[in-house]
Design brief:
The chain is mainly alpha-helical. It has one domain. It is built from 26 helices and no strands. The longest helix is centred in the middle third of the chain and has 22 residues. The protein is globular and about 80 Å long.
């Protein structure tokens, strides 16, 4: 029955959800109209705010692109292929594939959001090799596993609160940093981890489609993946000149590549020995590049792997600026701040965590970045919590701010299941060579969203911090 309901939601999304780019355009108009009619922003102010924000995510977009292609490049290496071949010997039933993919995605994203690309590659290969796998549902499994990142070491809002001289401290909203023991190490966050580690694989297993007619990987191909029929080693060999040359010697030099790899690992060791477990996008991209170079052994092999990994990233390159423009309207017209103020002003000592949770989810549709969203609504929510907790001990107010901040983070992450923005990370890997679009995936995520919305809302309100 649950699986059938999931299929019905899928059919609804197929009928009504447009292409991800069209979704961004419609969302742009909705946010612009909200600013015009709700806060009386002039048309020119809205348009200039849109333009001013248009390029704010360029650095982030480039980081995402590099995370995808450097991670995918590693996956194209011979040793990873052998590893996936080994796993495929034992994981040979669709249900096993779904559970393994969700669980691996959750555990990897607890370390870092960018490690989702590793799960994408594993899922793609298992989807190709195991008969009976509903491939769109498999992508939904990977996407749902992304929810764990907000609980782990790369969660941007808790890390922001623990950063010296952050904008909240400079604005006198916080007297000092809030240690991660109040956020990531709290009972609330640990309970949320247990919920997703145990509940998500079980839920997606129960929701697995019973029929896979026209939904297997081979059914969805629009190309024959001819490039993959020639191995990277064979393509590198074909590029050599028919006679010996210095250029070919350099192109296929193991020694040159190993020297650079040695330099790279030297810095990686220095980074973590001097800065601790500082996992950010830049160091992750650097690690992926160095590991990829090591696994591919020669410069030419690595170049070919990166060319193949880069073949399907156009969606990120041109869609991220439009979402940045939406963020600009929210930020520079005051629409985001107004929304945060209204939602926060209705909260009470008992209900403020729920309102923070809903605020995080709602604003995420316009600002699909946890750090960017918190910059817009965080000050209003923290002010509201301080007013609600007036007269309470400082430690209690700190706990309330921590709970509200975590609630925003949880709501922001879960609401991604209803909008296709971060599918732009998955589709260049899992959708390559297929006719799949966001509308083929999103319907499978409605029931998981509703289930976890209820469970998370209960935890953010009642679970001790």
């Amino acid at each position: 029955m649950i699986a059938k309901l999931g299929e019905k939601f899928t059919n609804l999304f197929l009928r009504y959800l447009p292409n991800a780019f069209v979704f961004a355009l419609v969302l742009t108009l909705l946010v612009a109209l909200s600013a015009f009619f709700w806060i009386d922003a002039s048309a020119i102010r809205i348009i200039t705010s849109w333009y001013n924000g248009f390029f704010d995510l360029l650095g982030f977009a480039m980081q995402i692109v590099l995370i995808i292609i450097t991670g995918f490049s590693i996956a194209l290496s011979p040793i990873v292929k052998k590893g996936i071949d080994y796993i495929a010997r034992y994981i040979n039933k669709p249900g096993q594939v779904y559970v393994l993919v969700v669980l691996s995605g959750i555990l990897l994203c607890l370390v870092s959001f960018g490690w989702l690309v590793i799960t994408c590659v594993l899922a793609r290969e298992l989807g190709k090799r195991v008969k009976g796998v509903n491939y769109p549902f498999l992508i939904a499994c990977v996407y749902f596993s992304l929810n764990s990142w907000v609980l782990g070491t790369s969660s941007s809002i808790p890390l922001l609160l623990n950063t010296e001289n952050n904008f909240l401290i400079e604005a006198d909203l916080l007297p000092s940093v809030i240690p991660t023991s109040f956020t990531l190490g709290s009972s609330l966050n640990i309970a949320m981890m247990a919920l997703i580690v145990i509940g998500a694989p079980l839920l997606m297993y129960l929701l697995r489609p019973k029929t896979v007619e026209n939904k297997e990987y081979v059914d969805l191909l629009i190309s024959n993946e001819a490039s993959e029929s020639v191995t990277i080693k064979e393509e590198a060999s074909n590029l050599k000149l028919p006679f010996k040359s210095w250029s070919d010697s350099l192109n296929n030099s193991h020694i040159l590549q190993l020297i650079i790899v040695f330099m790279g690992f030297t810095y990686i060791i220095f980074h973590f020995s001097s800065k601790g477990l500082d996992l950010n996008f830049n160091i992750m991209i650097f690690i992926f590049i160095i590991v990829g170079m090591l696994l591919h052994q020669t410069p030419m092999h690595y170049v070919i792997s990166m060319k193949r990994a880069s073949s399907n990233i156009s969606g990120i390159l041109f869609q991220y600026p439009f979402y940045a423009g939406i963020m600009g309207i929210m930020l520079y017209t005051g629409l985001g701040e107004r929304l945060g103020q209204i939602l926060a002003s209705t909260a009470t000592i008992d209900s403020y965590p729920f309102f923070a949770y809903v605020t995080g989810g709602f604003v995420n549709f316009a600002i699909p970045s946890a750090g960017g969203e918190f910059a817009v609504v965080g000050p209003s929510i923290i002010n509201a919590v301080k007013e609600i907790g007036a007269g309470l001990p400082e430690s209690e107010i700190t706990s309330m701010i921590s709970r509200a901040s975590l609630a925003v983070a949880y709501g922001e992450s879960l609401s991604n299941m209803l909008q296709p923005f971060y599918l732009l990370i998955l589709m260049p890997i899992m959708g390559a060579g297929t006719r799949l679009q966001a509308r083929d995936i999103m319907g499978y995520l409605v029931i998981p969203f509703l289930t976890f919305f209820i469970l998370q809302a209960i935890l953010v309100v009642w679970m001790p911090i």
